[in-house]
Amino acid sequence: GSPAAADRLTSGGSSAWDVADYVTWESYGYSSNPGPEHDRWPNTLKESFRIAGTPHAAKILALSYPRSYPEALYSYGIASAFGFTYSANLGESERGKPSANGGHFGVFSPSLPTLAGKPLDAPPAPSDTVLRRAYKNGIVFANISSKSYVLVFPQGGTLYTAQGSSTVSGNGKFNLSQG
Question: Could you write out the three-class secondary structure of 65-93?
Fold first, then answer.
């Protein structure tokens, strides 16, 4: 499924958006396909900006197929910044097998940070190259540009990156690599 498919699925004047509690967005950012078809970020970002800020955003279940913890954290961060519910990886049968085709690359959800609560600000704008979204218990940053970005922490807390987690203080700095 995808948001575009939900737009097209209509009956009697209602769309899937009108009758479904959630709409699954299959292959959010990463598909289960090996090789160059695995990375779907250009189209995913374009469609995410279209849906963000609409009532549909709260109905998105972003299902991604990351092959590693850095990919899982990146897809989680992007989905969170847009206000989508995130889901990934249904098993571990193909973990560490880059040529595998099917999508069961490992369960990363216990390793991902939990940003409980509703968003406190608007979703990112299409002109943003570093996505930022504040939540009741944290802030998500994701660099979708081709350049590094120096992030200055607005407050102390825990920083989650592809390399793990660490405690940071307010006004500390971190070099946020490109996505």
Answer: CCCCHHHHHHHHHHHHHCCCEEEECCCCC
| pLDDT digits 0-9 by tens, 51-68 | 998 999 999 999 998 888
Structural element, H or E, at residue 149 = strand 149-152
pLDDT per residue as tens digits for the range 113-137: 665 567 889 999 999 999 988 888 7
Q: Which residue has the tokens 């992007």?
A: 78
Strand partners, 166: 159
Residue carrying structure tokens 């709409």? 23
pTM: 0.78
d(CA 120, CA 3): 24
